[in-house]
TrEMBL record:
InterPro entries: MptA/B-like
Topology in membrane: Multi-pass membrane protein
GO cellular component: membrane
Places the protein is found: Membrane
Protein's name according to its UniProt entry: Alpha-(1->6)-mannopyranosyltransferase A
Length: 520
């Protein structure tokens, strides 16, 4: 799928057609922006508001956090989410299946649209997750003289600890030294003022969004894909904007470093690319999956100029190891906490959801066995996760070796490798999908794959609730989310799949002389 070189077309038109002439912004871009503002405002009612913190009371917003005020805020919030998803789908249809008379948004327009949609979400309270409070908690512990790789946020009680998910109160930090330095710097400015810390953390992570806006079009152009479609699929995506920016999450910075390092590498700037990838690993170790694939990209570049020698292979392998390790070691030395982050990696096992195969299989085993015997989930989960870990290690090595032919194959292999990590690691959360998105958009994906991305992204925005609760174990809510997500996916490929527009036109007597291709 990722390694196809030909351009996928739809209804005889290339998906890489040129943007139309300059004109006013499409209505859906404005609609998405209004939706983002609604999400921002509604978030103060229904999202992850700091606990035991008087910030909202001081500005007179406490009335919208309970009772009818909260109900009204919830309506505003979910109408905003719906507007963003609908607008995103419509922009995608303009790009992927253009209609005569509807100009495709330019790359510049899409870049500014991403920034415009993200801007309101930079000033709201944390959305869909309390992870940012955990980041601040680790920074507060560090500032208080503790080692966040050995001591959890519970060592320093206060408003930050009160606001974070208590399951992480006693856990140690799993993040790299660069990110821990960032959290320490944020707390040095914000102290224990929780909302100030949240806003400053977003500011510290936003360079990742800017790097992605720079790198993704370059990756797509390098491999002959549409940079506009790449920005739309990976960055304008409501799942990314709401979860990763509105969260916020460390993936925002990591995905920018990952995409930028890869873009530099395929452009022939191997040392710079490796250094940036080293920074990505210093933020979150998952980015290290990309580094071995740089070997094949670099050797492919040498092969395009001359015959590769054994000395070339040895030199490339050595540099690919030394540069990221040197960057990581420099940050580790500067932070002065050693490699304690290794002990924190296992805490993610406490997250249980069926978005990974090991957890899904464990649930299935206990469900099938229920009529015959009583099986506790944890023992089964231990086995399935162990099998998943071994399978993942084998798959990663196999993908690395199989995709050694050229740079295109290597980047495709990396995309598959990140997807394997998502599916086989102990737990997966919506913002983890950015690992795959920022790489896969380098290629011209088939229409059905884009539709799957739209469906999965919509589902992830619905089943994770703005107050950090989850509904994917509640059958009615999960079924409704699946139905809405399926509708969004089909709508990308076929306008007005429910024929609501046709019904409305019949009711209003406006069916005659309707131009083809103008359904909503």
């Amino acid at each position: 799928m990722f390694s196809r070189s030909r351009i996928v077309t739809t209804t005889g038109r290339s998906t890489l057609g040129q943007p139309g002439p300059p004109s006013r912004l499409p209505t859906e871009i404005w609609l998405g922006g209004i939706g983002a503002i609604a999400v921002c405002l509604g978030g103060f009612s229904v999202a992850d508001i700091p606990r035991n913190h008087p910030g909202l009371q001081r500005v007179g917003l406490d009335a919208i956090t309970y009772g009818h005020g909260k109900t009204l805020g919830a309506i505003v919030f979910w109408l905003g989410v719906a507007a963003m998803v609908f607008a995103w789908m419509r922009v995608g249809r303009r790009l992927c299946t253009p209609v005569a008379g509807e100009p495709r948004p330019s790359l510049t327009t899409l870049r500014w649209t991403v920034i415009g949609w993200a801007a309101p979400l930079c000033v709201t309270v944390p959305l869909f997750s309390r992870d940012v409070y955990a980041y601040l908690g680790q920074g507060v512990v560090f500032a208080a003289g503790f080692d966040p790789y050995a001591d959890g946020p519970a060592h320093h009680p206060g408003p930050v600890l009160d606001s974070m998910a208590q399951v992480w109160a006693s856990t140690t930090a799993p993040y790299g030294p660069m990110f821990m330095a960032i959290t320490r710097g944020v707390v040095a400015v914000s102290g224990e003022h929780v909302l100030t810390g949240v806003w400053l953390m977003r500011v510290a992570l936003l360079p990742g969004l800017l790097l992605s806006l720079w790198a993704i079009p370059r990756l797509a152009t390098h491999f002959g894909a549409s940079p506009e479609v790449g920005v739309w699929l990976a960055l304008l995506n409501p799942m990314v904007v709401i979860h990763v920016v509105g969260g916020p999450h460390v993936e925002l910075l990591m995905m920018g470093m990952l995409a930028a390092g890869l873009a530099l590498t395929v452009a022939g700037r191997h040392l710079s690319g490796l250094a940036v990838l080293g920074l990505a690993v210093s933020i979150k170790v998952t980015a290290g999956v990309a580094i071995p694939f740089v070997v094949w990209i670099w050797l492919s570049h040498i092969r395009s100029e001359r015959k590769v020698t054994r000395a070339d292979v040895a030199r490339v392998f050595a540099v690919v190891i030394v540069v990221p390790v040197a960057v990581f070691a420099a940050w580790t030395a500067a932070l002065g906490l050693g490699l304690g982050w290794l002990t924190g990696l296992g805490w993610a096992d406490q997250i249980i959801n069926w978005f990974t195969l090991p957890t899904a299989v464990a649930h299935l085993v206990t469900l099938v066995a229920a009529p015959f015997t009583s099986l506790n989930l944890w023992p089964v989960l231990t086995v399935t996760r162990a099998i998943g870990a071994v399978s993942l290690a084998i798959i990663l090595v196999a993908l690395w070796w199989r995709h050694r032919a050229d740079e295109r194959s290597a980047v495709a292999g990396l995309a598959w490798a990140m997807l394997a990590v998502l599916l086989l690691e102990p737990s997966t959360l919506p913002w983890y999908y950015t690992w795959v998105l920022v790489i896969s958009v380098a290629f011209t994906l088939p229409d059905w794959v884009r539709a799957v991305v739209v469906g999965v992204s919509t589902f992830m925005v619905i089943v994770f609730q703005p107050d950090d609760s989850i509904v994917f174990y509640k059958l009615p809510e999960a079924a409704l989310a699946a139905a809405v997500s399926l509708l969004a996916a089909i709508s990308l490929l076929r306008p007005d799949p429910l024929r609501l527009g046709a019904v409305a036109r019949r009711l209003w007597g406006a069916e005659a002389d309707r131009p083809q291709g103008c359904e909503t």
